[in-house]
Fold this sequence. Notes:
It contains 4 helices and no strands. It has one domain. The chain has helices at 6-9, 11-37, 41-66, 70-108. The protein is elongated and about 60 Å long. The chain is mainly alpha-helical. The model has no long low-confidence stretch (mean pLDDT 85).
Amino acid sequence: MMSPSLTDQMPILSVCVQIAFGMVMVGVILAMFxxxxxxxxxxxxxxxxxxxxxxxxxxxLFALDTGSTAYLDVAVVLALxxxxxxxxxxxFVERKARRPEADHLNTAGDDHDT
Length: 114
């Protein structure tokens, strides 16, 4: 039989965890709005990273609420995947920012064709 969770033993902690769940969900909704609205790609990358952090915190809160440590493993894996995705998207944005200069150099010699 599973031992009672920490929130079962401390009612005030249960209330705090429920309030934190609500705050995390509001944060996810706001970050989703920023992800959809944009206006630029870096804004969307930051919104996606924010959502990842909020989902990791949701997993931590759920582990605290239920007393199951399996959700902490999920949170760690999600954090690692979120970090790698943020680094990959940041490199993509950086290369995209450099690309117009390279395109300009390649098309400079093509002016004599017209």
